[in-house]
From TrEMBL:
Domain spans labelled Quercetin 2,3-dioxygenase C-terminal cupin: 157-226
Required cofactor names: Fe cation
Protein name per the record: RmlC-like cupin domain-containing protein
Pfam families for the chain: Pirin, Pirin_C_2
Span of domain Pirin N-terminal: 11-122
InterPro entries: Pirin, Pirin_N_dom, Quercetinase_C, RmlC-like_jellyroll, RmlC_Cupin_sf
Cofactor binding note of this UniProt entry: Binds 1 Fe cation per subunit.
Length: 248
């Protein structure tokens, strides 16, 4: 495998702190812009957010994006214009295919605890799709020392994953110290891209004996193809929680 690895250190990400919101941006987003990190294939935003109690994002519009939120800790209330109201908790993946247009709000209604979540924006292959909302739960047990498939292309997915409207796969893991998991690159289009993000919660992750990530770090992997293997080993003293995004 002739993969290229480009690290994205946590300290180098875009960072804003508005008291109610502490956000880190891997890619250019809102007021943060870096011409070297505008997008990564169909991946357009990778934001790690902490929202304080009784605060959040008021009602706002989206269109022509696939957006999913991965709850790390706390609770996040989602409301949208197609009738969905839900409080999301750790293990929940909330997915919105915005299509022709949707408005939604994301609010921490908990009186005392912050909510920590990852939000990812992906560009679909098709436009003018009907808006769609879906949640699935991947609990701690299902992710511990395993790499769990959570999102896959809508044309190929089954009921065990959330379907997305592009050539994109997402996986999640909680890896205890000294444990290893292996990701086999998916898709048919060559070459592929992979982005790995380690949640800002602790631990160390060794990837293919090439890169070591610490909390909040990520790495862009290019020049991989279907069938290539990426090996992850937890080498710190804490559990590492991470996601793997595999895309054309």
């Amino acid at each position: 495998m002739n993969a290229q690895f480009v690290e994205r250190k946590s300290k180098d990400r875009g960072h804003v702190n508005h008291d109610w919101l502490d956000a880190h941006h891997t890619l250019s987003f809102a007021s943060y812009f870096d011409h070297k990190f505008k997008s990564f294939g169909a991946l357009k935003a990778m934001n790690e957010n902490i929202v304080q109690p009784n605060a959040g994002f008021g009602t706002h519009p989206h269109r022509e994006f696939e957006i999913f939120s991965y709850i790390i800790s706390g609770e996040l209330q989602h409301k949208d214009s197609i009738g969905n109201i839900e409080i999301l908790k750790p293990g929940n993946i909330q997915f919105t295919s915005c299509g022709t247009g949707i408005t939604h709000s994301e609010y921490n209604v908990h009186p005392t605890l912050p909510v920590h979540f990852l939000q990812v924006w992906v560009k679909p292959d098709k436009s003018n799709l009907k808006p769609r909302y879906q949640t699935m739960t991947f609990d701690k047990f299902s992710k511990t020392n395993k790499l769990v498939h959570i999102i896959s292309p809508v044309d190929y997915h089954d009921n065990s994953t959330i379907g997305i409207n592009t050539d994109f796969h997402a996986y999640a893991s909680l890896l205890e110290p000294s444990y290893k998991v292996v990701h086999t690159v998916q898709g048919t289009e060559k070459p592929r891209k992979v982005y790995i993000h380690l949640m800002n919660t602790g631990g160390k992750l060794n990837i293919n004996e090439r890169v070591i990530l610490q909390k909040g770090d990520g790495v862009f992997v290019t020049d991989v193809k279907r069938g290539d293997e990426i090996v992850f080993e937890s080498i710190g003293d804490e559990v590492v929680e991470f996601v793997v995004l595999d895309l054309a």
